[in-house]
Amino acid sequence: MTPAARLATATDLLAEVMDTPRPADAVTSAFFRARRYIGAKDRGEIASLVYGVMRHWARLHWWLERVNHMPDPRALVIADCILAGGRTADAVAGLFNGAKFAPAPLSDRERKLIRALDTRTLNHPDQPEAVQAEVPEWAEASMRATFGDRFLAEASGMLGEAPLDLRVNPVKGTREDAIKALADAGIKATPTDLSPVGLRLAGRAPVMALDAYKSGMIEIQDEGSQLVAFMADAQPGMQVVDFCAGAGGKTLAIAAMMENKGRVVATDVLEGRLTRAKERFRRAGLHNIETRAIKTERDPWVKRHKGKFDRVVVDAPCSGTGTWRRNPDSRWRPLGPGLVELLPLQASILDSAARLVRPGGRVVYATCSVLREENEGQVEAFLASHPDFALVPVPSAWPAAWGKPPVGTDMLRLTPLRHDTDGFFAAVLERRADAPVAEAGADEGEVVVPEGGPATAQPPA
Ligand SMILES: C[S@@+](CC[C@H](N)C(=O)[O-])C[C@H]1O[C@@H](n2cnc3c(N)ncnc32)[C@H](O)[C@@H]1O
């Protein structure tokens, strides 16, 4: 494809992303599936143009408003070419030339636009901080409350692309085995700093096509997500529930830690996700996992299994602010419920799921959000209303066999800026050994699921 043809296709894809109420990665996959004639290299370039626009969204909109131009897909692509791509106005006019497969020639208004933007760059000193750091209005106050005077630095740390991390499945091999298998396929991987079974790739690579992936030796999982799973310190032989298991990213890590011994029950309100997770469990050679679809967090199954589990992991549906590097579109088009619905839902899920844990057992409450109200706020409220639980600081919760804990704090708070992982939060809550089982949580029917059904969030695997 010529550069002009790529721009034309990127404009079509961006229009489709903007028009479709589905996550951009799903729209992008469907777009390319319907256009199999586009080769891998062109796909990469086109996707990168569109993701560039989504990463620069607030700043591009700021500029377009300043020069009084509608932010339609074509204008966004044109502005991105100049402001972020460093192209001159003449170069852009040369690409939008109406030739075969190239974008239609520029209109008079668009000619005015490129002249107004010529030699400018994406950032401008007049931009408010939230625009500079691409923070949407719905998250700004919460993020400021969370980070205080580190707001701009932390939010700016979420602007780049996330790295591609893998978790090595100890049931199928060691980290060294995986490094070698990847090197044999020409892919350079280095051990992650914080996760003892993580690998970070130097760039993008088609890992899903590799034997090491197909045989279950490696899984794609952000280093932060790995750490959250390990906070459960699940031991071989334990009984564990992964309450919001989704597509099973953390379930896999937990079950592997248990060396296939004991039992992990993966529950979720979306049965389709659990069905997809089963294929991953099979590939990983893990036989100690069962799935259970529940109707809500107050499903009668929870009451029937009160106090029966050693570990309960609650990877709650959340705003996903920790995954903005991966899903830049989710800043501007949050498709799931907003914070107003999420906060009571998270509290209700934690309250109900905590009933499953035995006295002396542990609940891990986690999110892929960086916002205090979804994290510490939920944990503090839970502890205040559940005196039979106490916080276990990270260094005590971290599996001893795995050496140094990732942080020395009471709760695990990871941010792209400080840890170069996705933003994740986890707190470990231990139930007093002498706590009576009947105490934990309310019974079914006490909490109403928000209108429109239970919430979902799209986390990284
Ligand atoms: C953050 S995602 C889980 C990601 C998953 N643990 C992983 O690592 O791949 C949150 C999950 O909570 C589920 N969920 C939403 N509402 C729920 C509820 N009321 N009870 C249990 N799970 C719920 C969603 O369907 C979603 O799969």
TrEMBL record:
The active site is at C368 (nucleophile). Residues 439-461 are annotated as: Disordered. GO terms for biological process: RNA methylation. Pfam families: Methyltr_RsmB-F, RsmF-B_ferredox. One of its GO terms (molecular function) is RNA methyltransferase activity. Keywords: Methyltransferase, RNA-binding, S-adenosyl-L-methionine, Transferase. It comes from the Bacteria. Residues 154-432 form the SAM-dependent MTase RsmB/NOP-type domain. Belongs to the class I-like SAM-binding methyltransferase superfamily. RsmB/NOP family. This is rRNA cytosine-C5-methylase.
